[in-house]
Amino acid sequence: MYKISLITGDGIGPELSESVIDILHAINDKIGLKIEINTVEAGDAALKKTGKALPDSALDTIKKSDTCLKAPVGESAADVIVFLRRELNLYANIRPAKSYPNMPALKENIDLVIVRENTEDLYTGMEFEVDNSAIALRTISEYASNRIAKYACIVANQRNKQKRVTCVHKSNVMRKTDGLFARSCAAAAKDFPNITFDQMYVDACAMNLIRQPESFDVIVTTNLFGDILSDEAAQVVGGLGMAPAANIGDNFALFEPVHGAAFDIAGKQAANPSSFILSAKMMFEWLGMKNNDAMSFTVAKKIEEAVYGVVREGIKTRDIGGNKTTKEFTQHVISKLT
Ligand code: ATP
Fold first, then answer.
1. pLDDT by residue (tens digit) across 275-332?
2. Where in the sequence numbering do the catalytic residues fall?
3. Domain 1-90+241-338: assigned CATH number
4. Which residues line ligand 1 (CB under 6 A)?
């Protein structure tokens, strides 16, 4: 039995959560993997109600669970997800960009993963105003850079593709911070002799993600660059509606879509739940690995096959060129889960 906490979020969050809860119930009923879901309120709605975007009770529930699923949160995202990443030491943000059939994609045959450092960079909130200027402090440590590069090498090893890790930075301009990042990543990669390690400036990477995205295997990069490049990579394969992510630490992990709360389409049943459903797929892979649980791996595979099968038949939500509602799309995925 896995205890899963689920942050229902803001904007399209509640609709995506409903979809994933239906999927989890189907897994429980049809496949027999026992799951207990504890929904948690955090984000703008929780802030309005309780004065705290992440109430203590919510944090407590999350900490007592085996893992957490998080739907997108609105304006208070920094107080929820940036806080949780640091509080739970979820240092690796894994963002795959993978081709699915029938997508409005720029290119086909893409299967890359962005491994984004999740605890440092310009995300530590060290910003202040002096006179008429605003200053942000960027932290990059040897320890965190080494740790994320090691993780990227492990991911590349598991993927069985080119076994290539591309370290993305801008050390020609940010000589101290990105210089340290690049050096630490290169040092970490030395422990993985079967991995081809190379480096690319972030502007060149942004261009190459459009020009030849199929050439990438694993990208390792700093927090802000990872945030931006993963939205770009998601759009190249078909859009944010298909983009899942994992936040992974040594003992805990949290899974969420790459995108935000998308208030423009909230409450209209127009959201593509694939991003959250595929985040759940990543969750079962992690549970499988952590607990040496073959059943969890099977469930992950079945979820991906179900989504793949549905879009291959041309059954799609509006963002990827279809006409199905969030609920209808979810029901099609469930019908393929056996
Ligand atoms: P944030 O900065 O909070 O991550 P963002 O800049 O990535 O947010 P989003 O709101 O996540 O912006 O997404 C941008 C647009 O993409 C949305 O306004 C919406 O139109 C579309 N979009 C995002 N997610 C989905 C989805 N699951 N289904 C359909 N469309 C989506």
1. 999 999 999 999 999 999 999 999 999 999 999 999 999 999 999 999 999 999 999 9
2. 123, 170, 203, 227, 231
3. 3.40.718.10
4. 12, 77, 231, 240-241, 259-262, 264-265, 271-272, 275, 319
